[in-house]
């Protein structure tokens, strides 16, 4: 036979308690028409209901799934059930233990019953919802006073007042009145807890306890109606009903388990308890015919006391409402301030405090709607990415803030400043008597050095300017200014440029070129050519410079000065540079088979953006390891501008030197700090700019510069290469002043590796360079 489950066993015990209640109800009903000669029989099953209820409470209190506050409540209820069982036994002795049955409640029974009610109240008041403030306790005390007076008045007038025989039989109505009043208070407390919430205590269990307390109290107060039948007692129903309600509540808690009680739907409600209490008392006064002056005075005192309680309760409510209104007003003020902050944050940049794109669009849309003519300038900082890469985003943010401050100070009330994102700013200028002068002021403000975190930064800007048209929208204004800005950046940056319709065609072409450039390396469209570096005076190949070329499938051969800036702008220059270096390493290894006739060095150009990349040297080291290239035959070429524009460039060059590579400084003489660089930059080779050899300045001044350069390079132990040699006369002059290395179209244009081999390597052995050579 299958064993009953735990839930089934608990349900069976609950059914047993309900059966006892039904049996006792039948016993009491039969006693109304039949005199029981053995009234003690009716009392026998009553203690069982309390014990079964206590068992159910004990089981709920041991449920480890419940929180501590809920388990503590049910442990208190277990104690209450134990007191209830003892009270029943004492009550039974009072009722049937004497020479004749009576409805008397002795002092022991009274203490035990009151102990039950006190334990229940204590359990309720220790629930989490009752860990409240002093004001909450004052309100509860006022409500408790109202309930006590009202319930006591009702029971006295409708149950006890006119039953002198019952009072004479029991000796006093005090115990019954006390128990009923305290039971009513318990019921009110249950109801209050049910509405206020009681942590994780099952709300349905609280409702059951409240209803059980009310029904039990009502039955108990009917005891005087049985004065003619002393062998009966309303306790035979009141007590089992109380026990059953406790048992049913514990069972409900066991079924609910640790499930979070469903939240009550909060809606405004007015407490009717004070008004209902006054109404009940008034009805009693108006409808009850009382001849006894003492009782009349007692009713008057009760009415006054109730009125005082109600007034006190309403004063507290008014004070709470006043405090609540003050809190609401404060919260409304905070909400308004928060809405103002939200509105500001929605239209302003969090980093700089300047306007953002939303404010720009809102402002320009309003100007366009009004038919106003205005100008939009779009500013983008030059080489801002290098600042982030070299010094970190923290310094980059500081530079953005400093840029915003300078622009705002220069603009004043002339226009609206908005940061669109990154290092891009837009300026809306509604009216300017001299717009070019204002733009120059903005440029000058940005060109001033900025001292940030110990670094001195000079960061100019490229600016694109456009004028509004009647059919414009904010997006079109920004597009035109953006096109003009990139045109300014493409011509070297640090300048401003008006938008010209022809720029759209150029911008479209540049966009297509950028798109093609992203896939050109994958599609094997790049190749290297090599320009010889020769020794003077014989013209033997001492080295080569590897140069990148792009054979576009549709455009044909794209010049480096066209695609290199695009590669830097779209961020693929690092990938291209790594490919060039790897190809140079492989070509150097291929030429090693020529032995002594092979070029001593292959030089590879490195851009400023590559030097600014923290991972650049690691990439070079990985390529050297992969290709196994001889670092003694490799030369890294950097320009003065590349070294000056990257604070980490010197450190990067020293790291390259530790790999065994040599360093050449290209275009020497055109930078701002050429001589000072020789003190900090680990230079092995100087390549004298072609402008001093064959350019416009190659006259007397250029000749003097060329002569002086070879003088101090010899003293420093640095090799010098003269670039841009186009004639035999220039080569002879360079040799006469001390140059032993040269490069230029006179000796050979950039050529394919096969052509270089045919011209320079498939020849008799070449003259070896001195240690100071390339």
UniProtKB/TrEMBL annotation:
| InterPro entries named in the record | Biofilm_reg_signaling, EAL_dom, EAL_sf, GGDEF_dom, Nucleotide_cyclase, Rev_trsase/Diguanyl_cyclase
Please report the stretch or stretches of sequence annotated as the GGDEF domain. Answer: 372-501
Which residues are in coiled coils? none
Taxonomically, which superkingdom?
Bacteria
The entry's keywords: Membrane, Transmembrane, Transmembrane helix
Domain called EAL: residue spans? 510-764
Membrane-crossing segments per the record:
12-36, 42-61, 73-93, 105-125, 137-156, 176-198, 205-225, 231-251, 272-290
Pfam families in the cross-refs: EAL, GGDEF
> What's the protein here called?
Bifunctional diguanylate cyclase/phosphodiesterase
